[in-house]
Design goal:
Elements: E1 3-9, E2 15-19, E3 26-32, E4 39-44, E5 47-50, E6 55-58, E7 65-69, E8 74-80, H1 85-90, E9 101-102, H2 110-118, H3 122-140, H4 145-156, H5 163-170, H6 174-185, H7 189-205, H8 213-219, H9 225-235, H10 240-243, H11 247-253
Antiparallel strand pairs: 1-8, 2-7, 3-6, 3-8, 4-5, 4-7, 6-9
Amino acid sequence: MECFRIAEYAGNRPLEVKVCPSGYPGMVYQMAADRTAAIDMIAIRSGQAADLPALFLHGQGSEPSIMRFKAKPYTTIQVVFKPHALYSLFGWDAGGHLQRLLFPGQFGASELERALVEAASNEERLGLLHRFLAGKLELSGRRDELVERSLRMIREQIGTIAVQDLTTSLSISERQFQKRFARVVGMPPHLFIRVRRVNEALRMMHSGQYERLADVAYALNYYDQSHFIRDMKLFSWVSPKHIAMKVSEFHHDLAGSSYL
């Protein structure tokens, strides 16, 4: 697991949250105070999902999404997995779950969903989630240490890394590496690197260390500004207008947006 995230909302106005794909799969528990679903709809460019259960699992994605919440108080708990978790935890070929939502019966979590809804506190829910995932890991035990090593290299060198750097360092052919990476992570390595680089750009924008968004593109070694703009448009909700702004103006203009 990468982390747990808990969000609680006490208001009574509908919310819309824009989400940049992270390359990480995850599990989401979402429940309103009246024990109905908190999320009204999740939409991506290629489709949308509604009538979501209290607990669902999502695979990796490369499309930005919008989460629309109902006009009521709610709690959400998000389990952010490592990029290789669908393979390591569930024993799946992750490539078959790109951009997919899975309901509890599809990943052996029907009893877990009921227990989460009936739990008296978020602390109890975190314990339930941890025990469920620990059990999955014990049963699966699948690892691809070469791919996991490549993921660490991508994290550490996100501004400069390329697929050829990985295959050279790992002493593996590009064809073999592409196949293993897609099976374990769920998307081709070049696409994963592009998604993670956009996430790093967004993190840098929020760091306060850069005056203009073009400076962020330079720091991440984008070939040129048009390449940076193309990836930002593809994987996030940032438009060319925003890229021309100073970082302080970007924060003000996109208040209320969230990138994961």
